[in-house]
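pipeline/complex-builder :: batch 7 item 3
reading input block
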Amino acid sequence: MIRLNPALTSNITESWRFPMALKTAEQYEDSLRKLNLVVYMFGKKLDNVVNDPIIRPSMQAVAKTYDLAHLPEHEDIMTATSHISGKKINRFTHIHQSLDDLVKKSKMGRLLGRATGCCFQRCVGMDALNVLSIVTYNMDKELGTEYNQRFLKYLEYVQENDFTCDGAMTDPKGDRSLPPHRQPDPDHYLHVVAQRDDGIVVRGAKAHQTGAVNSHEIIVMPTVAMREEDKDYAVSFALPADAEGIVYIMGRQSCDTRKLEEGMLDRGNTFFGGHEALVVFDDVFVPWDRVFMYKEYDFVGQLVEKFGAYHRQSYACKVGVGDVLIGAAQTAAEYNNVAKASHIKDKIIEMNHLNETLYCGCIACASEGFKEDCGTYSVNSLLANIHKQNVTRFPYEISRLAQDIAGGLMVTLPSEQDLRSPQTGKWLEKYYTASCDVPAINRMRILRLIENMTLGTAAVGYLTESMHGAGSPQAQRIMISRLVNMAEKKRAAKKLCGIGEEC
Amino acid sequence: MLKVGIKYCGGCNPGYDRVALADYIRESLHGRAEFVPLDHEHIDLVLAVEGCQTCCADLSSFEGKQIYFIAQIEDAGKFLQDF
């Protein structure tokens, strides 16, 4: 029997629907079927999100985070011990209790990136939980509020039910030159529109929400540092993903309708994918027991900054995706019988150099982390921003090299149907078999995978998400500028060349 | 018969197929060792199957037990020879 928190059994928190801790992948899928999400795609409301051929690969990627937690060969990374209950939980619901936890988070990203070849969507909720564990504590300490106890009860509920949480931060933002309270349309930043005895009512939207319709819960956070005039926008809360008034509008991905075609070959990645959605909050009620920040505008800055650091670390996943792309490029070279050419070998070396440099960054920011007052461990913010800045660049160069090695055939290949056709299949077999003994179909498979990752559906995750996810490049450069200790660098230089302290 | 428990690292970036190697060791020792769950009361030997030289598997619950580390394929051959 799962122990429920009475405070969390409000009418919109129906715990009975999810009666299992450390879910299996199958239980995760079943639990999603019980949600009543309002999801639109191609102008139509979906009846069944889980079985939709375009969305299902993304659900399967999240399911992998459940699956691996049950395997003895991955449990050391995929599970942790809850600091609340002492129980074994999925690491995605864990609050980091040590540097080792932070390092394992980075390693988990690489593991799952390689296992799925795409975005597995669950890191953002973990980052939201961790930052709220810190900021609710800091608010209580300074303001005498009771957010932290409220949050810890919610966290226990998430851990007990092994939920996937969507961490929703990015508002549509409207006019970028104006703060939230001066927007011509006040809903361009999510805000409070009414306060009631039993809770608050919010309106607005969150954009680019990765994995939104694969989530049980949605955790909302403000997106920019705020002043007093913005206090109605300084709000953080959690809701079941199917709370009344929440509407999801699915984002398109390049080549997405290939998932509607017969056959799997042209998808490239035959199992997994990602998704994003615009999430609209159309006057949504939030009970007080799920509100974690309410108009404390002074604390929004630290929430955004610390969440940013955690989420920039989370781009460890791109190292695992890079592993797949490098493996695909090497395989394509071998199929073309050019793997021994010196320039090909050098390109593969460069891809590995870039990929492992990314790995250095996500391990470093974790290893150089520190303990917050509340006990949660934070990453080193400077190194997390350096890591993410590299992520905005290196996957693009790795992709360019993969396309270089793959050759133009990657984008001129006929379809799987042409390969299967009695009229044309014989010609594709004849002309797409390279000099080595590799069947044309395998050559097509590996090229389609490279296409998928560098300009197809998975390029959303590997490239553009690497650019803009967890903050666009300039956001990291601002943080780098703020966080480097320039005075100490100058002092070191002056000391070595004989300039006195006074100059 | 010697009771052996197999403990894996998390497998973030393993240099070889740890599960396949562990299966090979199990088959090679068929009839000579009993492979038991890690929570078995009387484990004689813990075989730590690590994906790389970092050897980060959490072995804290096996304090006082004999532990043999496998960090690369070659280590399996040596283990089987020594067994």
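note: Chain B touches chain A at residues 6-13, 18-19, 38, 49, 56-58 (CB under 8 Å).
queue -> next item
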